[in-house]
Amino acid sequence: MREEKSIEIQHVLAFNCVDFKYANNGSYVVKGLNFSVNDGEFVSIIGPSGSGKTTLFRLITGLENPSSGTIQINGHYTEKRLGSVGYMPQQDLLMPWRTVYENVVVPLEIKGINPRSQKEEIYDMLNEFGLKGFEQEYPNKLSGGMKQRVSFLRTILTGAKVLLLDEPFSALDAITRLAMQEWLVDKWENLKKTILFITHDVDEALLLSDRIFIITDKPITHFKEIIVPLGRPRKIRDLAQPEIITIKELMLKELRMDVDTYENN
Questions:
Q1: Spacing of C-alpha 31 from chain mean position
Q2: The whole model's pTM is what?
Q3: Most C-beta atoms within 10 A of its C-beta, which of 28, 80, 157, 256?
Q4: Is 33 helix (H, G, I), strand (E, B) or coil?
Q5: pLDDT per position as a tens digit, 115-139
Q6: Residues 36-45: what's their mean pLDDT?
Q7: CA 64 from chain center: how many Å?
Q8: End-to-end CA distance of the chain
Q9: Residue 98: in which H helix or E strand, if any?
Q10: At CB < 8 A and 24+ separation, what contacts does 104-113 make?
Q11: Are strands 68-73 and 76-77 parallel, antiparallel or unpaired?
Q12: Can you give the CATH number for the domain in which 214 is found?
């Protein structure tokens, strides 16, 4: 088994010549992939359905290991990556029998930390996340946006430097989704976490990201990288800038070509 190696931290996440294919399928999903993400970046990954976006997250979390190559998390190459990143899936996965407070403290309980030792800090964060007064409510009393805020706070409380968000707003209605996007921009700028964000929404990627990785081939051998030329803080109206509209049109053209490629394979 490969030994864990500590190296000088340059990136909080890096893939180094990573190959991967599932055991029951002879085709590679990832082949010779190299990329890195810097501390504090917000990077979105966008591509056609079935292109391997979720597989990338499974590799990062440690649910899967590369067939060859290495993955670096927080300056370490290791096969034991479970628990080293925070993960927020598409569905909130809140436990219906637990209150909001009891849901958000789950990561602390898993680590063996008594939530009472951090109760004041947790209540401060609940307040910051717009959940004050709902601490003892159950998930069925919450709106979709509030459930996602609870889920995101739970992800934050893992203590991980790298957070993986897998289409967290895809199930929300359009108005709530826009509100959550601006909310996430605000919270991320304060928290200074590194976020990788899977989305199918070009506007969402442009609003949130420092960089966007577009999956353009199958298997994934590289990304087409877009650097978003917007300062921070950002608002939805910033997407109306001519330069951003041009980038959006180029991205949509690229994604349409990718869909045609996938459908023909």
A1: 21
A2: 0.89
A3: 157
A4: strand
A5: 888 889 999 999 999 999 999 999 9
A6: 95
A7: 17
A8: 36
A9: none
A10: 104/150, 104/153, 104/154, 104/157, 105/157, 106/154, 107/154, 107/155, 107/157, 107/158, 107/159, 108/157, 111/159
A11: antiparallel
A12: 3.40.50.300
Domain boundary among 104, 137, 159: 159
* Alpha carbon distances (Å) from 221 to 35, 214, 256: 10, 11, 19
Please say if the pLDDT value at position 1 is more than 60. no
CB count, 10 Å around CB of 11? 18
Q: In what order do the strands lie in the sheet with 30-37?
A: 5-6, 76-77, 68-73, 13-20, 30-37
Cβ-Cβ contacts under 8 Å for 83 (sequence gap 6 or more): 62, 158
Report the C-alpha gap between 115 and 112 in whole angstroms: 9
Please give the order of strands across the beta sheet that includes 86-88: 86-88, 162-166, 194-198, 42-46, 211-215, 223-227
Calpha distance 262→265 (Å, rounded)? 5
Question: What is residue 6's three-state secondary structure?
Answer: strand
Are 249 and 171 in a shared domain?
A: yes
HSE toward the beta carbon, residue 146, CA cutoff 13 A: 19
Split into its structural domains, the chain has a count of 2
**Torsion region of 35: left, alpha or beta (phi above 0 gives left; psi -120 to 50 gives alpha):** beta
